[in-house]
Amino acid sequence: MLEFSQARSGILTASYSNKQLHSKFDPIKEAENFLQRQEIQSDSSIILIFPSLPYLTEIIEKRYPDSNLLTINPDDSFLDKYSEKSQPNHANIDQLEKIRNFIRKNILNQLKIISWEPACRIFSQEFRYIMGFLKEEIREQQHILATETKFGPLWIKNFSRNMKSLSQNLEINLNKAHVLILAPGPSLKSNISLIQKYSSKFVTIACSSSLKILSHFNIHPDMVINIDPGFYSGQYFDKDCAENTIGIFSATSNPLFCRFFEKKFVFSDNEDINRILSNQLPVPILTESASVTIAALKVAKNLNCGEVFFVGMDLDFPNKQPYPKEHESFATLRNWENRFDKPEWHLFHRNKISDYRSVLKLFHKNFTQIYQRYPFKRISSDLSTDFDISTEVFARIASNMAVKPEISTTATQINQGRLDEIFSHIKKAIDAEIDELEAGKIENIRILRLLDLERVRNFKNNRDETISYFRSKSEKYE
Predict the structure, then answer these.
(1) What's 174's DSSP letter?
(2) pLDDT tens string 285-329
(3) Distance from C-alpha of 1 to C-alpha of 17, rounded to nearest angstrom
(4) Could you tell me how far CA 130 lies from the centroid of its own chain?
(5) pTM (2 decimals)?
(6) Contact (CB, 8 A) for 31 and 117
């Protein structure tokens, strides 16, 4: 039970279940002594966990006026008792989105996590929950930064090249045709005979990395999708498949793919570029994809498809070990716009054998997704019973389908004036962020991070050189 009383110094103190949250003598002096033991830079972004009454918060605000501060308390009643004071940016344990947004905005700053030890001991369960969430979110944002460092400049470069070479873009209507998405996992080869038998009933969308195996078995997909920005995506490509195939590309993918296809559907799934360009893009805007298979799913739904099936989406590592936690693609499928009421799991495996196969069936109105998983290992013949179960599910559904309807396509011309507007908009966005950077504000910097994340990180050490560098980048979009 939370209780408040007067300390000997005459100010408010608090306890919970007869355990002191603040000193009975002088809570302010206690907070000052605690803060002296912390190593904090003047411009750090500080996450303060369970400070209870805001004595520590007020001291931090006075000592570090340039820092960004977020306080997390287990109970709003701490601040209710102190309502006459100015309250900091506050989030309790039910407001995790505030914590997530704070980390996203301040990940480039020096993040400092400070926990008020008396409260964290008393609310130990909540403290462990919050710390676990913070660590996971910081790890995720660091992963995003690593991805931006590696691919950011390439995304921008590819986007510019793809836009400059894009004279037209297809408008496609699948007319409720059923879609077969072909990924390169081991279950693709295991199901080749079924694909050959029933492909006439599907619009087939092949991930670019599955082209070689499909070509080997003389299977020609209706569409090929690629979102890979890198050089190595070209190793899967065969010019012969471009003749009667529609190319589907992310606007930031390898331009080599885009140029080979006469018929192409270009979309954008880069959230940073979409945000900067707003409604300026001449291509459809889809939400960011966790993987190429999820991009294929989102494209198929955007193009008015019917039922969707996956083959070769195995979601495990080459050493036949499953992902240690739920894969983002898997979560996307399960939560896909709430299209599935209650997913049904069907696991088929044998005792004493660690390798197993699973089929996840999700049925909702005209949308069906089958997820098949096979480890990266030669399957022994005595497991054929389990394999037959999964293929029977697919074969039964496919055999009852009608032949696919004709795909409707219309070419939409994109004139040079439209493209000039895009690059003018990019230049304005870059210049606006340079102004933000000069003012020392990096919380909303996005496109400069893609251009050169390390320069943004080290801006304070090389201010003039960094500004000059980004100004030169901006001039290229004139």
Answers:
(1) -
(2) 988 776 888 888 889 888 988 877 777 765 544 444 444 444 455
(3) 5
(4) 21
(5) 0.74
(6) no
